[in-house]
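User: I'm writing a short report section on ligand binding and want a predicted complex to refer to. Could you take this sequence and pyridoxal-5'-phosphate and write out the structure as tokens? A short remark afterwards would be nice.
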Amino acid sequence: MSETDIQLSSWAANISPSPTLAVDSKAKAMKAAGEDVCGFGAGEPDFDTPQFIKDACAKALAEGKTKYAPAPGLPVLRERLAEKYRKENGIDDVEAANVIVSPGGKYSCYLAILAVTSPGDEVIIPAPYWVSYPEMVKLAGGVPRVLPAEDGSGFKITAQQLKDAITPNTRMVILNSPSNPTGAVYNKEELQSLVDVALSAGIYIMSDEIYEYLLYDDVIHHSPASFSKEASEKVITVAGFSKTFSMTGWRLGTLVAHGKIAKAVGSIQSQTSSNATTFAQWGALAAIEEPDQSRAAIDGMLEVFERRRLMLLDGLNSIDGINCERAQGAFYLFPDISALGLSANDFAARILESHKVAVVPGEGFGAPGYIRLSYATSDEVIEKGLVRLKEFCGSL
Ligand SMILES: *Cc1c(COP(=O)(O)O)cnc(C)c1O
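Assistant: Sure. The structure tokens for the complex follow:
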């Protein structure tokens, strides 16, 4: 059969592969071939999962906890997560029934979108956005409506912008604070005003809080669902264990929503993936049941990230033609490279080729003219990478 005889579905034909994973795999292939690549592409912490979490998982395996679990998650883990969301995030009235444990934060996002989006519904996605949101909306039959943050806004949309973007077909807006790719963090007033607009328009909010613990400069995380009872009914909060506990390969996400939505999400999950890996959930339970050990693990990681963030920020801003905001969350910086006179795609392709530096071009995040650098990499790579970046930019 020839290629042209293969007929893909409209879903499959329309989807683009994840560009962040593409850069990362090219850089990894070059590294595997023995090349000395400075990788800033990674979207995951470079630490190992804390030992006490691994131990809890190993114990579960040894005890034979290797069978199906209830599709929405281990009951005890859902209980503990409900407690965490009440106490830590201030979302009152969350019970186990409102919590779903999924195979990854990414899948939680998709479930949230699927649960409320019908074909033709519009979903507002502020740009720069995480690469997967528009593709997930399309897979649900929805229409992504990209809403670019204005220049000089610190990559944040305003309530007025949101208000102007809402149409009778708008079903949901996606918020992601702290943000991937920009590291931007919305403060309470900003979030409150966005929530007010969404509630008065009657639309849902998906709040992706996967980076809720990765904060710098004493900024504080706020969960929009905590603002009022009405907000807790309209906000679907997604998160997971990947970024907080360096558990990207474990595939464990969470979702908190109104009972009716959580139930629908549970049904979708039961018919598509079934439960997230059983023994992985037992490991994750330890992360919640041992708050002191968890806090120590997170603080250790934050201390390292904080040093690298400032090192990379200063280094980038010392290069002619690069201008970088002081991002206060996650582990990314998102500098403006438009003054250098080439597209971000060209920049990323050329610097990987000639100077062996892997960065992710902004086009995939809806932000041409910018590149994303992850500082979830060693100090040595950051130092060496900055020298190469400077050389490359000087050569343009
Ligand atoms: C990493 C990430 C996720 C989810 O990651 P999983 O590994 O699937 O848990 C979700 N949203 C954003 C913005 C992310 O960067």
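A remark for your report: The chain has a mean pLDDT of 96. The CA atoms of residues 46 and 377 lie 6 Å apart.
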